[in-house]
Design goal:
Keywords: Hydrolase, Signal. This is Amidohydrolase family protein. By secondary structure, this protein is an alpha/beta fold. The protein contains 14 helices and 23 strands. It has 2 domains: 135 residues, Urease, subunit C, domain 1, CATH 2.30.40.10; 281 residues, Metal-dependent hydrolases (TIM Barrel, Alpha-Beta Barrel), CATH 3.20.20.140. It has an 8-stranded mixed beta sheet with strand order 2-3-23-22-21-10-5-6, with helices on both faces. Helix 9 links the parallel strand 18 and strand 19.
């Protein structure tokens, strides 16, 4: 007996916790989804994530995996069928530079509340990211281990999380958010934010090794260090190189011993080169990079995880010191994207939204901004197939090893979006997920269906 899944069906399942037939309501603290044994999506144009060619095929989901892709496929008995005619089926989006803990909380909230408040706020931010179509995030700083576990176990609803854990900073580095009254520090007197894993301060090889290993112990899938000056931090000019080469190399070796890699915050060109010298595999930002360092990244297989920061309506609220630093970032965006594309670098898409619920809502709009430098296909591939390749660099620490992410292929995780229209022709569709994303599925569970 075929079942047709509708918005009303989801609503009914959620209301009564339906388990009749093959449906099971999956209830988290901040959202709902419905999972079926088998779901068939018919008559949509299918974007694999990696190929420009759209396929006319049906897609069968069994459990949490894509098991069959073929025209006019025969559905298993009891399968739910979804009519995707007139829509494009794309892989779930991946944000490679996300801060779940900091995306929507203001700095004032972070300073005046505690872990309970932070986790509740983060749970809502994660739920909202999923409903914008982001089914996976690489979290690049913050105490996200419990959020990741709560998501995977169904306590809360949100994207898959690749957690880096607390970012590791040198004293006076980009993640040193202590007040001047907190200095001098002593080894037996950690700052409260360090105890709550908002950030770690490490000076010298032994401290760097300890912090890297502690993050790995807690469940980090990759390691984040701050290798240069940043915009939002209070003490470090944008030009600064942070950590010695030996400190960075120690972190890279410790991560490599666990089969994973290091990513560094590196905006200025010297910090980028310093990171490459140390064996870092993912440069976060890199907006002041020279062609010489971009060529080095290409040669050594280093990823450029950059954001389309411009002096526009999405520019963050900053003080004068921060604005002066931000100008160096925006001045380099066009040059670096243009040359990175020309050189054929591996480029990741991420948003790096901080401290603004309004900016977080524009997560998809940041992807659409890439049209200034990339075709819609290139941008969508970056946010799906390419970003998934970066996630997989976590190796044996990959928390999702059963199949690939970021693609619609047999044997892949069932993370998919039905888009009203064709985003390969009009990437602006991803800027308005509320109206244009008609179905959102993650891990085979349907979280939205308005067809």
């Amino acid at each position: 007996m075929k079942q047709i899944l509708t918005k009303a069906a989801i609503f009914s399942a959620v209301l009564v916790g339906a388990t009749g037939g093959t449906a099971n309501a999956q209830e988290g603290a901040f959202g709902y989804g419905v999972k079926h044994d088998h779901v068939v999506i018919r008559d949509a144009r299918v974007f694999s994530g990696c190929s420009k060619q759209l396929a006319d095929a049906d897609v069968l989901v069994s459990g949490n995996m894509i098991t069959r892709i073929a025209p006019d496929l025969q559905a298993p008995e009891g399968a739910v069928e979804i009519n995707g005619e007139g829509h494009t089926l794309i892989p779930g989006l991946i944000d490679a530079h996300w801060h779940g803990m900091y995306a929507t909380a203001t700095i004032g909230e972070m300073m005046t509340t505690n872990e309970g408040h932070w986790n509740l706020k983060t749970s809502i931010a994660q739920r909202d990211a999923l409903y914008r179509g982001f089914t996976t995030v690489r979290d690049t700083a913050g105490p996200m281990f419990d959020i990741a576990t709560a998501t995977d176990t169904g306590i809360i609803v949100g994207p898959r999380v690749y957690p880096s854990g607390p970012a590791i900073s040198q004293t006076a580095g980009h993640m040193d958010f202590r007040m001047t009254r907190d200095v001098p520090a002593t080894p037996d007197n950690l700052h409260p934010f360090e105890k709550m894993r908002q950030f770690y301060i490490a000076d010298g090889i032994p401290e760097v090794l300890r912090r890297v290993r502690e993050n790995l112990m807690l469940g980090a899938t990759q390691i984040k260090l701050m290798a240069g000056g940043g915009v939002t931090s209070s003490y470090d000019p944008i030009h600064t190189k942070q950590f010695t080469l030996d400190e960075l190399k120690a972190a890279v070796e410790a991560a490599d011993n666990w089969g994973t890699y290091v990513l560094t915050h590196a905006i200025n060109n010297e910090a980028v080169g310093h990171s490459i010298d140390a064996g870092v595999k993912s440069i976060e930002h890199g907006h002041m990079s020279t062609v010489e360092n971009l060529k080095r990244m290409k040669k050594e297989g280093v990823w450029l995880s950059m954001q389309p920061f411009m002096d526009d309506e999405d520019a963050p609220a900053l003080n004068e010191f921060q604005k002066a630093k931000y100008k160096f970032v925006t001045d380099g965006t066009d040059f670096v994207y243009t040359n990175a594309k020309k050189l054929g670098l591996k480029i990741a898409f991420g948003t790096d939204t901080l401290f603004s619920a309004d900016l977080a809502k524009r997560q998809g709009a940041q992807l659409a901004k890439l049209q200034k430098w990339f075709t819609p296909f290139e941008a969508l591939k970056m946010a799906t197939c390419d970003n998934a390749e970066l996630m997989a660099m976590s190796g044996k620490l990959n928390p999702y090893p059963e199949g690939p992410l970021g693609v619609i292929d047999e044997g892949a995780y069932a993370d998919m979006i039905l888009v009203d229209g064709n985003p390969l022709e009009n990437l602006d569709l991803v800027s308005d997920p509320e109206n244009n994303f008609k179905l959102i599925m993650k891990d085979g569970t349907i979280y939205k269906n308005t067809l």
